[in-house]
């Protein structure tokens, strides 16, 4: 096994528990016999009874000799009985560990769908099994998301490359039939799409690092600076301090506002950004737009990479992605996780989205 340190062979847990039971039982028996011997010292030295017929009359020394014999044989009996009972009892107690070990080996071999599902009443081993099942479920979900992300990323990166390759092949096959201006414009669009996707992937990975520099920031001031590049946005900005990485905080606000503006309906100019203190004094950022009507099921998936909501918008893009890459809200979710902030998406009944980010108390 990779990374397994060398270990000397030793006794198993079942044998250790069995020997501990034997030792405890033998020790208790020896203490009991020692107490009996101590009590026999209070018996008089002479005969305990007077037998006129000349038969055997026990004395204290006789009783002590018999007690020693019984102690020896009793200790041997307790050792064997304790070993047998301890072995059975230890096996019964450690049986859940065998199921946990089997599940752990299956997980080590790559099977994350196996569950222990240990029956019985709650105790330490059942808590361990339940915790292990929870860990397996989370790992299975994470690996599934990773596989889906890899497949989607491969598709997103391959599509513009394939389109550009096809355009170049067509142009090479028949150069005279190609409109150079249209060809270059389309080629530039595909190249920009490829670059945007690469940059979005890098941005998505960046907040996951644990070495981010954080500093006190006025969320209202940061939002105000971001809104300089966006027109027609209603604001309600109240000063509130958060401890965050300033560049990532700007990116979070910018992605949310850009997403709201891009997917806002042309006939409804509603895009509203509000900043203030929420419940418990926690900083709260809310962005609202009036885009297409979205279901709860669709909204629940918008923070996943490359997921786009249903419905076309006035700019031909779909909710959930900055620049059409499907990574805008995924980047927001990644930045929120890095700052331990709560991200909540809710659909508006009239259409559009309400996005709320609640930061931890400073």
Automatic annotation (TrEMBL):
Subcellular location, record wording: Cell membrane
Topological type in the membrane: Multi-pass membrane protein
Transmembrane region(s): 21-43, 70-90
SMART domains listed in its UniProt record: HAMP (SM00304), HATPase_c (SM00387), HisKA (SM00388)
Record keywords, A-Z: ATP-binding, Cell membrane, Kinase, Membrane, Nucleotide-binding, Phosphoprotein, Transferase, Transmembrane, Transmembrane helix, Two-component regulatory system
Enzyme Commission number(s) of this protein: 2.7.13.3
Record Gene3D superfamilies: 1.10.287.130, 6.10.340.10, Histidine kinase-like ATPase, C-terminal domain
All copies of domain Histidine kinase, residue ranges: 152-362
Pfam families in the record: HAMP, HATPase_c, HisKA
Name this protein carries in UniProt: histidine kinase
């Amino acid at each position: 096994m990779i990374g397994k340190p060398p270990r000397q062979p030793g006794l198993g847990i079942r044998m250790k528990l069995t020997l501990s039971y034997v030792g405890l039982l033998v020790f208790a028996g020896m203490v009991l016999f020692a107490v009996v011997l101590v009590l026999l010292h209070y018996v008089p030295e002479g005969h305990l009874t007077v037998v006129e017929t000349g038969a055997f009359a026990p004395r204290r020394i006789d009783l002590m000799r018999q007690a020693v014999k019984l102690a020896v044989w009793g200790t041997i009996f307790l050792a064997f009985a304790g070993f047998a009972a301890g072995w059975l009892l230890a096996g019964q107690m450690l049986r859940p560990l065998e199921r946990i070990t089997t599940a752990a080996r299956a997980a080590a071999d790559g099977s994350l769908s196996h569950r222990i599902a240990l029956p019985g009443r709650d105790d330490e081993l059942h808590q361990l099994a339940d915790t292990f099942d929870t860990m397996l479920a989370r790992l299975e979900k994470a690996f599934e998301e990773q596989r889906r992300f890899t497949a989607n990323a491969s598709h997103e990166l391959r599509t513009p490359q394939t389109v550009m390759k096809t355009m170049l092949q067509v142009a090479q096959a028949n150069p005279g039939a190609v409109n150079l201006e249209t060809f270059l414009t389309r080629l530039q669009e595909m190249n920009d799409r490829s670059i945007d996707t690469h940059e979005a992937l890098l941005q998505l990975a960046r907040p996951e690092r644990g070495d981010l520099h954080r500093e006190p920031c006025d969320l209202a001031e940061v939002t105000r600076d971001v809104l300089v590049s966006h027109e027609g946005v209603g604001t309600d900005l109240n000063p509130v301090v958060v401890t965050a990485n300033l560049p990532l905080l700007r990116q979070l606000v910018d992605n949310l506002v850009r997403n709201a503006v891009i997917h806002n309906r042309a006939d409804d100019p509603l895009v509203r950004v509000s900043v203030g203190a929420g419940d418990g004094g926690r900083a709260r950022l809310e962005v609202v737009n009036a885009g297409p009507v979205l279901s709860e099921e669709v909204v629940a998936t918008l923070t996943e990479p490359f997921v786009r909501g249903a419905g076309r918008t006035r700019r031909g893009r779909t909710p959930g992605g900055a620049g059409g890459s499907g990574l805008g809200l995924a980047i927001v979710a990644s930045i929120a996780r890095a700052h331990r902030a709560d991200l909540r998406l809710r659909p508006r009944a009239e259409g559009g989205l309400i996005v709320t980010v609640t930061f931890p108390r400073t």
